[in-house]
Amino acid sequence: MKLLVFTTLFPHPGAPHHGVFVLERLRHWLAGSSSSSGSSPSSIVAPREAVVVAPVPWVPRLLARGRHAALWDVPIEERREGIRVFHPRYLLLPKMGMSLAPLTLARAGLKCARRLIQAGERFDLVDAHYLYPDGVAAARIAGSLSLPLVVTARGSDVTLLPRYSIPRRWLRWMLARASAAVVVAEALRRELAPLAPRELPIVTLRNGVDLERFRPLPRDAARARLKWPPTRRIVLSVGHLIERKGHHHLLAALPRLPADVDVKIVGDGEERARLERLAASLGVAARVEFCGRMAHEELHVAFSAADALALLSSREGWPNVLLESMACGTPVVATRVHGTPEVVRDLAVGRLVDSTEPPAVAAALEELLSHPRDRGRVRAYAEDHSWTRTVDGMEELFLRVVASRRGAVA
Q: Does the predicted model carry a pTM greater than 0.85?
């Protein structure tokens, strides 16, 4: 089984955390399910191979400023976790990107894929992540190469983009040509179903958590590594500093929390200056630290050092950060949106809030901080969310899709 993975959601030197969940799923599928029984699909099909085509926007040198400047550091080809990754450039026009991106992406991706095939590569299936524009472009590529297509929906590609007429039409076109669709949460499956043909298989395969990478450390040792005060109670917030991630809701709630509670924010982005001004205007700047970016492999230190994690997003598909925190023994508070109720199903590991108003957020955090959860139990909950089931489900689906296509051709 050899996959042609197509997505713009993939880490690269200019954005090392970008789409890391796609890399993680692929990495675990390639490694196989270590705990699978002899009768599972993952144990009877070998070897597994994949090549990733992850286009990045082409930006003229003179306009490569801010977040676009890093795109000039992205190589055309690299290896990540031993996986060959290609980064062809595609044209992303201002104000027209939403409409034309499927076409420019498809052109760049197909040109790259054909070069690979001419060099001797052979693929069984196109595995595309994020439905629009990536999945639409992948449908054009798969059609041109006569390969079956499996698309994975991950969040706003189902909860937001179908509200716009052009993406909605493109999505219907793509889903009519796909062999199967994967969603990372049942909530997304319910929203995707009305757009898809009735006969299209839609399979829920939730993201897992890497239990080796995200493991508990002694809290005092973790705080010492980060130089965080040992006696303060710390609420952690992790994610891009964008409005949708809701960091501002946590800051707004902080004045209502006891004076010994601090907030640490890990991440960077366009909202940082506004968040800093908000903290100052609320009189809590001394209790807030903006930690900047942190390497993915170091996040377990921050999770272990915190007393709680807050994720107050307005939209989420399957928020990996919640499971990563719980795998380190740290309980969570999250907004009840889309896939989060499927992640946090037990009061022993965290709380869901129906409102991001300061009183509601503060009350949930105060309850969590005043009644600390058993960190061992929180870790045990996360252990039931390893990648094993997802890897086996992927293999079963891929085998079925490839067999069905070969049968149809025969």
A: no
